[in-house]
Amino acid sequence: MNKQNGVFAWNWPNGLTIFRFLLVAVFPAAYFLVAPVWGLLVYLLASLSDLLDGYIARRTNAITPWGQTMDPVADKLMLSAVLVCLSIDGRVWWWLTAVAVFKEAATIVGGVALYRYRALIKPADAVGKAATILFCAAVVLSFVWLPASQAVFVLALCVSLAAAVHYGLQALSAAKKGAS
Length: 180
Fold this sequence. Notes:
By secondary structure, the chain is mainly alpha-helical. The protein has 6 helices and no strands.
């Protein structure tokens, strides 16, 4: 499945992204049907595969437009699934999940639009990576120290919203430059 135009190329990083898409469906099943701790392990496996696919892509120059678009989509879908499950279980406030999932959905729509129009997709910067790290820490904390996790979830959401504004302003700036 290797397209000559570079839109999709089969490589290890893209394979790991597809694997993470599959884990989005596995997480709720593991969390509710087996045990919450198994859901946590699936989430940690997805997080590890995200780190690994980014490392491999950069190290082997296997970065593709498809991977640049779909990697964050897989991450956003996983985070949304995790937040919904944790909210159902009472570990995360519903209002926080609603805001985060809405923000993630808006970001996915924006990323797919950029992909569709072959616009340059910027990799995550320090603000986006900080939000990811904070959400990961909050998810893990929700299993060991629930009160502290709530504060970290709120902080992660604030940083995530700041990252969305930051990326949105970058996209608008790039669009204005492209229009002129």
